Amino acid sequence: MRRAVKSLAALSIVAAFWCGGAPECKAQPIGGIIGFSATNYNVLESAGSVTIPLWRTNGDANFATMQINSLNGTAINGNDFLFTSANAAFPPGVISNGFNISITKHSTLQPTKSFYLYLSSPSGATLDTNVPPLVSSNTVVTIIGSLPTLGVTQNGPEVILNWSGSWVLQTTTNLTGPWTDLPAASSPFTNLIGSQPAAFFRLR
Q1: What does the pLDDT read at residue 194?
Q2: 4 and 100 together in one domain
Q3: Burial class (CB in 10 A: 0-12, 13-18, 19+), 136
Q4: Structural domain that includes position 171
Q5: Contact of 129 with 82, CB cutoff 8 Å
Q6: Are residues 53 and 128 located together in one domain of the fold?
Q7: What pLDDT digit, counting tens, does each position of 51-89 carry?
Q8: Could you give the CA distance from residue 180 to residue 176 in angstroms, rounded to a whole number?
Q9: Cα gap 36→38, rounded to integer Å
Q10: Hey, which end of the chain has fewer CB within 10 Å, N or C?
Q11: Nearest to residue 133, comparing CAs of 61, 28, 63?
Q12: What proportions of the chain, in percent to the nearest 5, are helix, strand and coil?
């Protein structure tokens, strides 16, 4: 009996040494912990989509799954981005995964917006409860609004303006305004030099 007690004590010491004495290491199942690779991701609206990586650490022996969920912020699901809750799967030995979120390209100028992602319902692994976490169970996605691009070329007395999207061309003779909509203008738009006082153009 004494020999058995000594053996168990020795195994405990070895296990604590292998984990570095960290309590979170001792508590993790062999499936490890799964989380986002960062606490914030930035994407240009013009990119059309963003890939969000997931990492698994502290063990990879189990088949593990976890549900990915979204939460509206200033960016609204169905209007600024498109995402349906889904499960991420990690077969044994797999330590990374990822998923795509569609970003809506608006035809009008948009401010920078953000929304949230969080993990839930772990199976075969666990969420990270460390402070700070090794891999976070929630993150923020920031959509950076894209400015329209107005291309300008000259062909003799003609100035040709090009753009894409459903933007409205505006003009003025003074940069301080007022600006006037040209609702009938479409790309490419041609303006004759000298047909009017100095003209400035922009999109809205």
Answers
A1: 63
A2: no
A3: buried
A4: 151-203
A5: no
A6: yes
A7: 999 999 999 999 999 999 999 999 999 999 999 999 999
A8: 12
A9: 5
A10: N
A11: 28
A12: 10, 45, 45
